[in-house]
UniProtKB/TrEMBL annotation:
Keyword Nucleotide-binding on entry: yes
UniProt-recorded name of the protein: Methylmalonyl Co-A mutase-associated GTPase MeaB
InterPro entries: GTPase/Isobutyryl-CoA_mutase, GTPase_ArgK, P-loop_NTPase
Family per record: Belongs to the SIMIBI class G3E GTPase family. ArgK/MeaB subfamily.
Molecular functions per Gene Ontology: GTP binding; GTPase activity
Coiled coil: none
Domain of life: Bacteria
Keywords for the protein's UniProt record, in alphabetical order: Chaperone, GTP-binding, Hydrolase, Nucleotide-binding
Keyword field contains Transport: no
Amino acid sequence: MIDQIPALLAGDRRVLARMITYIENDGEEKEDLLRELHHHTGKGYVIGITGSPGAGKSSLTDRVITELRKEGHKVGVIAVDPTSPFSGGAILGDRIRMNEHYLDKGVFIRSMGTRGSLGGLSRATKEVIKVLDAFGCDFIIVETVGVGQSELEIMTAADTTVVVLTPGAGDSIQAIKAGIMEIADIFVVNKADLPGVDRVVTEIEVMLDLGGYKKGDQAWRPPVKKTVSTSGTGVDILVKEIKVHRQQMEKTGRLDLERQRRLRAEVSEIIEVRIKEMIRDQLGRSGQWDELLEGVISRTVDPYTAAHKILKEELWKRSEP
């Protein structure tokens, strides 16, 4: 697969599709592939679109793609669908709604299952973002499965996070409960042709005021925009607002800082995964650890002492020449 990187960089869509599948299936050379691709990333701008089920995220994403394509941008889309409990694959509802873009060579859409990830974003999703970045996508849109405490993980992947709400569904209260106020860079009240839209806008503005977001400050205050995704009303304004946020992030240096923070977090995550794998492997092979765990169960050893001993001895062994 690594030998196909030049074809990917040259814009071969078939290679892109195969490479994404390879990463999803955790291929043997996946890490080597991602190592090589890392040098070709950092140019694509990632937009996260999240919101409660039925808010019209997929239809809105479809319209955003159209606006970006009008300007000639190359767009990659990752639609993070719930994983089917039967097949283990993604439920492809989002792709059906975006079918008009499938013949457009400037757009690449891929559905991915959450695969049990509590954050709504599987680890593979972040890796696929890198592949789309290396492929040359100017914008990479990640549409997530829904809003909740676990959806906060979109912050770890997106440069701009758009939270989609709808009138008449108690979304503003849900936003408070889920902590969505903290992750939204832009609020969108979709289905703005329905009654109650102005009330939702007002509630969000009040929550922003209570959250310390003052109008006129140099710091970014999440704007609240109204859209009707079925007709496309207001989507052009939303795209302009995304670009304004990007310009503000670049001007203040926050974009670079946030990307650096995410890269540091990625390294830490890889280290944590490796340590867990090392410990699991050792626990499976050594009876010594079984004895130690039995001591915890019988309460002759406390869990903290056991964990410290396991970590110390395992890491010491790994560090020996």
